[in-house]
Amino acid sequence: MAKYELPNVWQWEDENSNRSGNRPTAGARFEQTLPVGEAPFQLYSLGTPNGIKVTIMLEELKALGVEDADYDVYLVHIGEGDQFGSDFVDINPNSKIPALVDQSQNPRVDIFESGSILLYLAEKFNKLIPADIHGRTETLNWLFWQIGSGPYVGGGFGHFFAYAPEPMKYPIDRFTMETKRQLDLLDQTLAKRPYVAGDTYTIADIAIWSWYGRLALGDLYEGSDKFLNIKEYSNLIEWSERIADRPAVKKGLEVEYLSIDEETD
Ligand SMILES: N[C@@H](CCC(=O)N[C@@H](CS)C(=O)NCC(=O)O)C(=O)O
Q: Is 0.85 surpassed by the pTM of this model?
């Protein structure tokens, strides 16, 4: 690889990128009207690790008998840049899935960031978050841990292991080290208790399973289970399999996304 000389001021070199390309600016790139259905919740998302957190949560709420957790779910094709359409950016100015609208409130409530969405739903229905201060705080500790730690796995390890144009030792060593440290932390934690935050299944399990459970089961990056020697994390694997068996988790993964296209300008 050619030696990189640091310029004094970084310049964006790809100014002709298409509508889905990375840009150093935020905001809507084009007008796009999103469909709105009848259900109380309108979810604009995709079946990625961050996206499945929300469909799993909504399915868990429905399995617990929460009728007001009905939702319509629409496919936001991030490879085609749908996250930069005007209606989506109105809901989530950060242009990333998942984005949820609670239209049972007047005015409607817009919710973005998967952790914020899980917390909103848990608090709204008093489910999947313990009421006592110790259980609630431990759940939030691990929920925030996932949101802060996950990008080292997805944007770091996963990017350089699976998507970078060629293998590069420095970033792969750096992010594999951190990913394995996180896996060891979860494995040690799950040796002591059945769920991440204690004795009960919570939104922390949903957030963490969607990344680390799927990684442990070999469902995120082809060949990574061998590369990371996942089999050494036996408590994590047992927990991952147990959560994968939950009917609501299966439903959350299989949900059919509606197209946003009919209403596109
Ligand atoms: N911290 C955010 C991350 C969301 C995120 O990174 N979403 C990705 C898909 S998993 C996305 O929309 N990427 C599109 C893009 O970066 O343009 C969350 O937890 O909701």
A: yes
